[in-house]
Amino acid sequence: MAVSRRSAALGIIGAAASTAALALLLTPAVAGGAPPMTAAAAAALTGSCSATAHVDSQWYGGEVVTVTITNTSANAATTWAATWTLATGQQVVSAWNASVTTTGGTTTAVNASYNGALQPGASTTFGMQLSGPAVAPTVSCTDDAPGSSTGADVTVTEADSGRTVTLQVGQTIAVNLPSQYLPPTAGTNLVQLTSTGGYPSGQPVAAVFRAVVPGPVDITTHTDAACLHDPRPCTIPIRLWQVHIIVADVPSTGQTVTLTQVDTTRLLSLHVGDLLVVKLSSMYRPLELSNPGLLLLRDTTGGYPTGQPLTARYTAAIPGRTDLSTVTDNACLHQPTPCPTPQVAWSVHITVTA
């Protein structure tokens, strides 16, 4: 059924029908069928797969994208998850063959009940309709194929409230709490990778954060209950939970790599501690990472719409793979009758080694 709906949607696009009509034909962003993988399994996924996004159709105000997930491990996988950062103004309207959620600008797709199992070298696909700027997403993925390390660098539970934890930029911390707690939140020094459960879902809290900026930050939450929101609330005490995080910087190697517009699509290898400098023209939007935390943003200036050349500096933080990308923009593209100026994408594929 999902395939036929997608085919119908593409036919409507070809006939220049409205985006609203298209949305009615597509399946919801959270696909039907069995529930996706558990929070614990999603948090444990660490590698062994690749993701490729293909734009099937674009129009002013949206696009339809198909993402191919391939198991690159020598072992079979039973579950997978894909993540990417939405462009400014983008939203996921609907999706098929995966369960898709967005938290804080980071979108995660996890396999459906029927397409999670992948033999070595096998592939599957999921699709989605995006509204907003027609910018192709840069997607990364992880799966549970044996041979990868599992779990976060540090795990904290209800008993760790008040504890101070030191993380180096790029490391991860998992938060596991009972179901009566709200999903935890943190400052901008940490980026949230996954979050499931918590009040009022009835499921235990399972969240994973990655350290991305040096400095102190807290992860916080508190308990909640339905009776606390009644006209005459109950007297159940609210329990606060907080862990203090100190994010340590990455030691520098002293090596600097500089990229410009001519380096688009380049395959780049960096070592942890290397400095990466990107210099682009003023037409480009701020840069985005497909795998937040692998590169630590030191500073960025210029870019659209400032009228100044775009310059950004990053430090390679942890081993892994990520794409660094952007696209040109123009004020006339945002007018009621947009100009026909084409947008030019820029991206590099980066591998960071220890």
From TrEMBL:
Gene3D superfamilies associated with the record: 2.60.40.290
- Which PROSITE patterns does the UniProt entry name for this protein? CBM2
Would you kindly state one Gene Ontology biological process term found in this protein's UniProt entry? carbohydrate metabolic process
- MF (Gene Ontology): hydrolase activity, hydrolyzing O-glycosyl compounds; polysaccharide binding
* Domain of life, per lineage: Bacteria
Q: Where is the secretion signal located?
A: 1-23
Q: Which UniProt keywords apply?
A: Signal
Where does the CBM2 domain start and stop, copy by copy? 42-144
A Pfam match: CBM_2
InterPro entries, alphabetized: CBD2 (IPR001919), CBM2/CBM3_carb-bd_dom_sf (IPR008965), CBM2_carb-bd_dom_sf (IPR012291)
Q: What is this protein called?
A: CBM2 domain-containing protein
